[in-house]
Amino acid sequence: MITCLRNHFEQFCSSRGYTLDEVLPCVVSRNGEVWTIDVEHSAYPRIRRRPEITAPDLARTDAPSFLTKVKNFASAAVQHVAAGMPMASDEEIIRRHDICLTCEHLQNDACILCGCPVSRAAGYVSKLSWADQSCPAGKWGPVS
Fold this sequence. Notes:
With 144 residues, the protein is of the alpha+beta class. The chain folds into 2 domains: 1-49, no CATH class; 60-137, no CATH class. The protein has helices at 6-15, 20-23, 66-82, 90-101, and strands at residues 2-5, 27-31, 34-37, 106-107, 110-111.
């Protein structure tokens, strides 16, 4: 289950070639603009229906190797510790997560640019929850 803003979910669906009406069965609850989505539901748009045209340097479709993921995580962790381990607020984590859900670089719940998991799971051991970190595609940055 994920919680996100309706318009972010709509953008995410659209980026994968689905209309909001087609994926409404996976919406578990609505509280105004905040929706809870069952990502395990068969109506959830896991894959793209149509290819998107991307800039040549962003057209990467393969995930980083395991070693690259380890190197990227270690580098981010060292930076995070050096910065005093600042944590983002729950609101910031939700905002970042919603942005990632609509990103063309999201594949199998991970960023294909850096390999980081895109999850709001308990513990927040990811760049989404580390206030000093930023998106490798420049879609969100550090917070103070």
